[in-house]
Amino acid sequence: MEKIYFNFLLLFIPFSCFCQQKQINPSNKNEVKKEISADANDKNNLLDWQIDIPVGFSIISEGELEDLDFGSKEENSGKEITTLISFRKGKQNIFTAAYESLQDKEKITFEEHKSTSLKVLQEMYSKERIKFDVVNSDLKLGQYDFYKILIHMYSQTSKLVLTQEIYSSYISNHLFTAVILYEDENLGAILRENFITSFK
């Protein structure tokens, strides 16, 4: 199941760590706040965004990411996608966020992007013969319009084994995407609330 998830991430968030991550205001609760920004030379100030790392979660290093099954370098080459931050607790409770420049890309509307994403997901999971259901919705986080795709994956006995939440938005001519994967519903709720409140 983990391999399926990471192969899916290749469609949305290939992993390369070129962002700046500065520690600010570490609290005595062992929560570390990170300031996430685009390249310091980026004059567009892509996104002024900060997110807490919940207690008990640890940042996934670039080396750890390379050890996971994300596909070959050839598959990822040429994609202008930057991972902002990734952290996890255990093997299957993960948060990751990334952005991709839309400059010089074929122009599609936000609704078209959502429709395409849903179609790709449904085709992919169907080919893998996984029991799943997909629900999508729209929401506003801070000043940004997002769409959310919620995927439940089930065992052959119809037991819920994994949940994936995908949040995407067009921000300053970039596609920003955050993915939450969890097998533990309580940890999933923590990751979801942590992400949503990061835009308030």
Mind explaining what this structure looks like?
There is one protein chain. By secondary structure, the chain is α+β, with helices and mostly antiparallel strands. Helices cover 26% and strands 38% of the residues. The protein has five helices and ten strands. The protein has helices at 2-12, 62-67, 73-76, 110-127, 185-197; strands at 20-24, 32-37, 49-53, 58-59, 81-88, 94-101, 131-141, 144-154, 160-171, 174-182. It has a seven-stranded antiparallel β-sheet with strand order 4-5-6-10-9-8-7, with helices on both faces. It has a three-stranded antiparallel β-sheet with strand order 1-2-3. Mean pLDDT is 75; it is low at 1-44 and 69-77.
From the structure above, extract its key features.
seven-stranded antiparallel sheet; alpha+beta; three-stranded antiparallel sheet; globular; 200 residues
